[in-house]
Amino acid sequence: MTRPRITLDVFSDYVCPFCYLEAPELDALEERFGDVVAVLWRAFELRPEPEPTLDPDGDYLHDTWERAVYPMAAERGMTLRLPRRQPRSRLAHEASAWARTQEAIRPGADDALRTALFRGFFEESLDLADPEALVQVAQTLELDGQALRQALARAKFRQEVRIDQQTARELGIGGVPGLRFSLDGEHAGVLEGAQPRRQLFLAVERLLDAMR
Fold first, then answer.
1. For 167-186, what is each residue's pLDDT tens digit?
2. Dihedral (C-alpha) 70, 73, 78, 80: value to the nearest 10 degrees?
3. Where is the DSBA-like thioredoxin domain (predicted)?
């Protein structure tokens, strides 16, 4: 199998609606460029402890959703609802890191769990900080819930999440989604914020032109 020449690391948080809204654009990018581009999702906690979480009933969230989230969701044909809670997201990131280790047993486990967590939070206010809620989601995908329960209890993937966070800081990424492009393993630029697919396509096409 040919190794992808371009890697796109997507630093995202499960409590960020713009990260969820970027998912179909990234799917389109992979479909357009095939094996040339590898999209890798990375952890980024917007509000790690002890930073306070946002008030789900506060003006900031309601204003942001009315001004930006709902219009973008309509534009991209997605259904999002302002969640009734604003949980910590670290455990959800750890669950995603665990899912990547299940790919040999259940191909597509990583993508399936990520999609289910995003959808669960932004459509049903899933409590991302509740390990049992995460286990239940995994079980609906026919993943090993007990294995995930043990991994979360033992913090087996916490260091992996911290490494992603540190990488984002070193790249100067302060908001999500943060998109880091690499060409043949060499850093090739960063974009921040939800990008339209035409902008993603253009970024990749410029890198492909540089390869010729």
1. 999 999 999 999 999 999 99
2. -30
3. 7-196
Q: Residue 140: CB partners within 8 Å, gap ≥ 6?
A: 116
At what angle are helices 90-100 and 131-140 packed, to 10 degrees?
30
The whole model's pTM is what?
0.95
**Partners of 181 in the β-ladder:** 8, 189
Continuous segment of H or E residues that includes residue 188: strand 186-192
Q: Residue 75, SS3?
A: helix
pLDDT exceeding 90 applies to what percent of the chain? Answer: 94
DSSP 129-174: T-HHHHHHHHHHTT--HHHHHHHHHTTTTHHHHHHHHHHHHHTT--
- Tell me the domains of the chain and their CATH numbers: 6-211 (3.40.30.10)
CA distance 141 to 105: 12
